[in-house]
Amino acid sequence: MTQQTKQTANFPSIQALFGGTFDPIHYGHLLPVEALAKQVGLQQVVLLPNHVPPHRPQPEATVRQRLAMIKLAIKNNPLFSIDTRELKRTTPSYTVETLLSFRQEIGWQKPLAFIIGQDSLLSINTWFDWQKILDLCHLLVCARPGYTTYFPTSPMQQWLIHHQVPDPEILSHKPCGAIYLADTPLLNISATQIRERKRDRKSCKDILPPAVLRYIDKHHLYQNCV
Length: 226
Fold this sequence. Notes:
It catalyses: nicotinate beta-D-ribonucleotide + ATP + H(+) = deamido-NAD(+) + diphosphate. This is Probable nicotinate-nucleotide adenylyltransferase. Its EC number is 2.7.7.18. This protein is of the alpha/beta class. It has helices at 3-10, 27-40, 63-74, 95-106, 118-122, 154-163, 191-199, 210-218, and strands at 15-20, 45-49, 80-82, 112-117, 138-142, 179-181. The longest helix is centred in the N-terminal third of the chain and has 14 residues, at 27-40. The N and C termini lie far apart (53 Å).
């Protein structure tokens, strides 16, 4: 039995979610999550593209275009699937409300995890009803270049210390309440960087899946000046 098979056998029941605008989806989204899945033993990660993000400007690409790019990016990759419930909302997509809707579907005993980056972890206390998030799920945190795991305030740092677990196996033993800081690749890629490259007519082939890049070029996305 390989190490990856052992990990999968140890963690068969964790349902993991990964949300974002994905405007566009890129290797900075996909590769760290793939590494995280190997560490934790995730069998599937559900991508949750949102319609109205509460903490950033409205996406440039349309819902249809972003969804098409996600489908192209994960084609033939069984790790990923897509859930479109947030795309159907006309109000801001609050994580706590999405997590609650999943809980109502899967029950309260199954381990549920939400994947975020270090940057999001450090600003989590600005999220709507953030105190309720760990009552609904675990947090799986991907490393991000330029960000530490230290909060600027002592109460938030104590919150992290209280919930952090060193061993991902713990995540499968309870439905929610833990934070796992994963050792994932430090990829300095952002959707903003991609949009700026396209406007400047610079290559993006090193940071985008080929099918996504072809779609962007075919539909002339991200070419307008800001």
